[in-house]
Amino acid sequence: MSISQEKFKELLKEKGLKVTNQRLLVLEVLADHRDKHMTAEDIYELVKEDYPDIGLATIYRTVQLLLEMQLVDRINLDDGCARYEIGELFLGEAKHHHHHLICKTCGKVLPFKDDLLEELESHIEEATGFHVLDHELKFYGQCKECLERQNSTEKHVEV
């Protein structure tokens, strides 16, 4: 789902940011790839298709600024890379924690939006007085495809 450039411009101005081609292109790339968890290098490769003169350092600076302004979120998937996605609040959606399912076999990362931890957060606050602002959860295992491939291989070995 993409958002119009006018909406991006309006949101940048609301945040007190100057509207630049670089910022617009980074936001567009992240909005157009919402199901991906993109590194700065991934963003760079896509932005340079439309803006070949852009440098990787500009992408890093732009992503950092957008992160500080809470327009993008940074995700650590324990693979040594900082990854980014467009912020849900930026898209006008209610803030919703989403979690990640990480396949230990192929490395695929799947977002998982069901949040069953709200009750736990309430319990923590009632029990300790600690108000949880945010949380991040990662599940490690095998994706459906890798599990099916493994089961198929095991059946052939047993025969």
Descriptors:
5 strands, Fur_C, Arc Repressor Mutant, subunit A, DNA-binding, two-stranded antiparallel sheet, Dna Ligase, domain 1, 2 domains, three-stranded mixed β-sheet, 14% strand, alpha+beta, flat, single chain, Transcriptional regulator, Fur family, 159 residues, FUR, repressor
Q: Return the structural class.
A: alpha+beta
| Count of DSSP strands | 5
> What global shape is seen?
flat
The proportion of strand residues reads: 5-15%
Indicate the radius of gyration in whole angstroms: 19 Å
Low-confidence stretches: none
CATH class of the largest domain: Mainly Alpha
CATH superfamily of the largest domain, called what?
Answer: Winged helix-like DNA-binding domain superfamily/Winged helix DNA-binding domain
The strand line-up of the biggest sheet is 4-3-5
Average pLDDT, rounded to a whole number, is: 83
Number of domains: 2
Structure explained in plain terms:
This is Transcriptional regulator, Fur family. Keywords: DNA-binding, Iron, Metal-binding, Repressor, Transcription, Transcription regulation, Zinc. GO terms for molecular function: DNA-binding transcription factor activity; transcription cis-regulatory region binding; zinc ion binding. It is a single chain. The protein has 159 residues and is an alpha+beta fold. It folds into 2 domains: 1-94, Arc Repressor Mutant, subunit A; 96-159, Dna Ligase, domain 1 (2-Layer Sandwich). It has 6 helices and 5 strands. The chain has helices spanning 5-14, 21-32, 40-50, 56-68, 118-128, 144-158, and strands at 72-76, 82-86, 99-103, 109-112, 138-141. A 3-stranded mixed β-sheet has the order 4-3-5, with no helix packed on it. A two-stranded antiparallel ribbon has the order 1-2. Helix 2 (21-32) crosses helix 3 (40-50). The longest helix is centred in the last third of the chain and has 15 residues, at 144-158. It starts with a helix and ends with a helix. The mean pLDDT is 83.
